[in-house]
Amino acid sequence: MDAIDVIVTKRDGRELSAEQIDWVVDAYTRGVVADEQMSALAMAILLNGMNRREIAGWTQAMIRSGTRMDWSSLPGRTTDKHSTGGVGDKITLPLAPLVAACGGYVPQLSGRGLGHTGGTLDKLESIPGWRAYLSPEGMLGVLGEAGAVICAAGDGLAPADKKLYALRDVTGTVESIPLIASSIMSKKIAEGTGALVLDVKVGSGAFMKTVEQARELAATMVELGADAGVSTVALLTAMDRPLGLTVGNALEVTESVEVLAGGGPADVVELTVLMAHEMLRAAGLSGGKDPERALKDGSAMDAWRRMIVAQGGDPDAPLPRAAETLEVTAPASGVLSRLDAYGVGLAAWRLGAGRERKEDPVSFGAGITLHAKPGDPVREGQPLMTLHADDAGRFERALAALEGAYAVGETADADLLPLVIDR
Ligand code: URA
């Protein structure tokens, strides 16, 4: 077998055999297939697609490139979630301890911010002392103590994906449904969860801009999960405007703690509770403690505190705050008709909440607090949002990102997506 033969097969629009897929994924992981050959193959896949059999084979080959985690020693069932990424999407933070409080075990491997989208690990690292890197034994210990763990994937988990994802990031080959689906599902299946709920985001702030694309990605991932024996459900949810009222690392932790204390913005609460029900149902754990009750009676907050402490964090420590703030005010009176997720995410990124280069640190305090959401009445001159940055020099480029990203009219835009589009 050689790499050119595999590349030419896909370049010419033909189906890759199981042997070709197994060989090329393994040879790439071992460094036998070069980056330039894999990037040519990734582009051929992006342009010509893969059928269901090929995607399943590709996913299995990526899982086999590393180790598969095993939680069978836990006394209960595992269930997890994955979001395809968005702006202000902090749902994992309240959701993992909430599901733990209702009887599930949540072994969540998370990632860092990518472009204008935030990352769960960056958010949690704003808590003083909190550690993202745990050994498999360390993960098991936190799961046993708190019922939920949120940490970084170790090097042994789907190493083929780690290498391929970095290559796709710099070769214009991220936006391929077969490659995205196999990338996400290889990690989630290798993570060893028994059940999985996928939150596939749709809109300007998401990878999938249209409902049709999101539906195809969701269906592909659900099939991959089912093939691997993981009970998998997908929701399509709105990412045409930011989720909640905060965008940025420490700001989003504060909002998540508000949700765990029984408050928080309505959209974050609705999605957190809905996802908790789905995760429990997918694991066959419905009928236990009700998630709404666990938010009200403090048991979800207790699980959060146990989880943070077990990972070295101090849940009572003050969170980092940015030194400088700037208010953006409403240009007229009326209704906030639009608040574009991509524009707000880009502005938060430029304020320092995300990275410019992959080795850069993030600013924990940077980001945006929203004072109105689409559909809310506003008065001319009223604050619409507060920008937070460590350095006031960042405001100019953030304001440029917000140009055209919000509008005041008579009513909310008619094409605003419902929060939950489909299941
Ligand atoms: N997230 C992933 O893990 N992989 C992709 O390909 C895209 C988003």
From TrEMBL:
<dbReference type="Pfam" id="PF00591">
    <property type="entry name" value="Glycos_transf_3"/>
</dbReference>
<dbReference type="GO" id="GO:0006206">
    <property type="term" value="P:pyrimidine nucleobase metabolic process"/>
</dbReference>
<keyword id="KW-0808">Transferase</keyword>
<dbReference type="InterPro" id="IPR017459">
    <property type="entry name" value="Glycosyl_Trfase_fam3_N_dom"/>
</dbReference>
<comment type="similarity">
    <text>Belongs to the thymidine/pyrimidine-nucleoside phosphorylase family.</text>
</comment>
<dbReference type="InterPro" id="IPR036320">
    <property type="entry name" value="Glycosyl_Trfase_fam3_N_dom_sf"/>
</dbReference>
<dbReference type="GO" id="GO:0004645">
    <property type="term" value="F:1,4-alpha-oligoglucan phosphorylase activity"/>
</dbReference>
<dbReference type="InterPro" id="IPR000053">
    <property type="entry name" value="Thymidine/pyrmidine_PPase"/>
</dbReference>
<dbReference type="Pfam" id="PF07831">
    <property type="entry name" value="PYNP_C"/>
</dbReference>
<dbReference type="InterPro" id="IPR018090">
    <property type="entry name" value="Pyrmidine_PPas_bac/euk"/>
</dbReference>
<dbReference type="InterPro" id="IPR035902">
    <property type="entry name" value="Nuc_phospho_transferase"/>
</dbReference>
<dbReference type="InterPro" id="IPR000312">
    <property type="entry name" value="Glycosyl_Trfase_fam3"/>
</dbReference>
<dbReference type="InterPro" id="IPR017872">
    <property type="entry name" value="Pyrmidine_PPase_CS"/>
</dbReference>
<dbReference type="InterPro" id="IPR036566">
    <property type="entry name" value="PYNP-like_C_sf"/>
</dbReference>
<dbReference type="GO" id="GO:0009032">
    <property type="term" value="F:thymidine phosphorylase activity"/>
</dbReference>
<dbReference type="InterPro" id="IPR013102">
    <property type="entry name" value="PYNP_C"/>
</dbReference>
<feature type="domain" description="Pyrimidine nucleoside phosphorylase C-terminal">
    <location>
        <begin position="335"/>
        <end position="409"/>
    </location>
</feature>
<dbReference type="Pfam" id="PF02885">
    <property type="entry name" value="Glycos_trans_3N"/>
</dbReference>
<dbReference type="GO" id="GO:0005829">
    <property type="term" value="C:cytosol"/>
</dbReference>
<protein>
    <submittedName>
        <fullName>Thymidine phosphorylase</fullName>
        <ecNumber>2.4.2.4</ecNumber>
    </submittedName>
</protein>
<comment type="subunit">
    <text>Homodimer.</text>
</comment>
<keyword id="KW-0328">Glycosyltransferase</keyword>
<dbReference type="GO" id="GO:0006213">
    <property type="term" value="P:pyrimidine nucleoside metabolic process"/>
</dbReference>
